[in-house]
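hey
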């Protein structure tokens, strides 16, 4: 079951990356709850089998409407995120029994998405060491995203497409302001303990531009934790994977505005999103 989910998550279903990453940890010794969770994921796939990644020459209006500002997917764009500590951030109920957590569950989960006319690479994986702050966790996630962007940038250069795809600095969005400031050499003494290898983010600032995006509208949040809010999960999911049978109002409204060469106020377009 996990192998089938893994194949889908690496091919056309980025929304399965997080659950597949979590289930893969227990393939050698699954409990009944893990089997039940895998079956639940398969039921989710069955109910959303029409979804998949799409590529378009136009600007991705779904993701632009979600984040409230234009995302130019004609250019390489990265979005990184990380949670700090255990993935289950829900408030424990009084009826819940005390639960012992494995040490690795205290390590943060990194996630990032890279787009170029559509999603070309995504990742959800647990960090190798325990982050001592949310800023440190975000820096590790940003560093992983930069590595993959650099790999894609080298491929573009090998294909001699840099004049078309690398006209401007590559934008990378993150929802942690301390991490964004750190990437621009605006740091504090409290971050001196970070490993030197993370300075690779700073060393690439000649072609990389890291910007801040609010956490609630960060699409890569889907890769960094299990979301307890189904409505929010569906909103994030629909910015990355689409259905050819979707009648989403925001897509029609935004494309109509583009055709008529009208500047659409993306900040207000989220009210047109229909969750089905």
């Amino acid at each position: 079951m996990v192998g089938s989910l893994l194949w889908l998550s690496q091919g056309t279903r980025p929304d399965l990356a997080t659950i597949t990453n979590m289930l893969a940890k227990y393939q050698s010794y699954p409990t009944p709850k893990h089997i039940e969770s895998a079956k639940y994921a398969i039921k989710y796939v069955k109910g959303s089998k029409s979804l998949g990644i799409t590529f378009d020459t136009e600007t991705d209006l779904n993701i632009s409407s979600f984040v409230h500002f234009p995302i130019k997917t004609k250019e390489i764009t990265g979005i990184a995120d990380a949670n700090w500590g255990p993935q289950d951030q829900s408030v424990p109920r009084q009826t819940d029994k005390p639960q012992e957590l494995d040490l690795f569950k205290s390590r943060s989960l990194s996630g990032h998405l890279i787009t170029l006319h559509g999603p070309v690479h995504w990742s959800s994986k647990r960090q190798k060491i325990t982050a001592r702050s949310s800023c440190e966790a975000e820096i590790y996630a940003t560093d992983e995203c930069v590595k993959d962007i650099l790999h894609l940038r080298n491929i573009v250069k090998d294909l001699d497409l840099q004049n078309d795809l690398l006209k401007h600095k590559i934008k990378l969005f993150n929802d942690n302001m301390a991490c964004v400031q750190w990437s621009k050499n605006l740091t504090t003494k409290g971050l001196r303990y970070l490993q030197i290898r993370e300075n690779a983010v700073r060393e690439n600032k000649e072609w990389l531009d890291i910007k801040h995006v609010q956490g609630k509208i960060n699409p890569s949040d889907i890769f960094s934790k299990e979301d307890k809010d189904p409505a929010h999960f569906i909103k994030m999911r629909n910015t990355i994977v689409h259905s050819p049978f979707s009648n989403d109002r925001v897509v029609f409204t935004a494309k109509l505005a583009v055709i008529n060469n009208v500047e659409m106020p993306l900040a207000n377009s989220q009210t047109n999103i229909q969750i089905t």
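The CA atoms of residues 83 and 108 lie 6 Å apart. The longest helix spans residues 134-158.
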